[in-house]
Known about the structure:
Blueprint: H1 25-49, E1 52-59, H2 65-73, E2 81-84, H3 91-94, H4 100-103, E3 111-116, H5 125-128, H6 134-153, E4 157-164, H7 167-179, H8 189-196, H9 198-212, E5 219-223, H10 227-241
Parallel strand pairs: 1-3, 1-4, 2-3, 4-5
Helix pairs in contact: 1-10, 2-10
Amino acid sequence: MPRQQTSPPNCNAEDFRNGRQKVSQKVYEAEMFRLQVELVKLQEWVKATNARVVILFEGRDAAGKGGMIKRIVERVSPRIVRVVALPAPTDRQKTQVHAQRYIEQLPSGGEIVIFDRSWYNRAGVEHVMGFCSEEEHKQFLRDCPIFEGFLISQGIILLKYWLEISEKEQHKRFLARIEDPSKRWKLSPMDLESHRRWYDYSRARDVMFAATDTVASPWYVVPSDDKKRARLNCITHILSSIPYEEIPYMAPKLPPRQKAKGYAEPKRPGRIIPQRW
């Protein structure tokens, strides 16, 4: 299955507002399970063929990157499918080549690495918030297609996804994070700034697309106002973009239990937690 080609993405938020009926929970769960079974098959193919896959997720804050990644890795092995979400660079890392700490995380044979934000931080938050100079930003935009071309030339399968969310929906999700005690940890000072600087981030995104949406390494835009549709559509696209095949499964035969040879379970095997449920 060859990788699909797309025209340069157009991220006008109005394009993503539609009146389609929401996906029911029953349909969503059934389809998600089917796709997750396919992800397991993909995992087994990657392991068997020693393939190397990089999937990176970018997008506005609250666009749903974490939830997307959670569904992708929910039923696969963390030893094969690895998520990378790097913290802010240390003082030492700030003096390194920008891509250096990301290169260290690239997959070995038989691995899939998912970047929850990536080297594109330089085109987004670092540029908007002034964490890098204008010259460093220009250098990144110039060099990034060369860097990604090198990864692809080395046999790495590279997929880049931008989760696009409307201004109205982002505002709604930020309010939910403020009001829900279980979500407050998700709202950082950088999120508040991204809410204030909506159009600065829009301009940065547009410049990034213009420089790094190439034939060899295109950006795929995921409309994300509807989280369920976004997840189903994105995972479907991932599966259609990698030429995996189902590896025949040889069901093992469970060996018989060994003989007890006099062993008896103790009456109190340890401190049992209170049984409240």
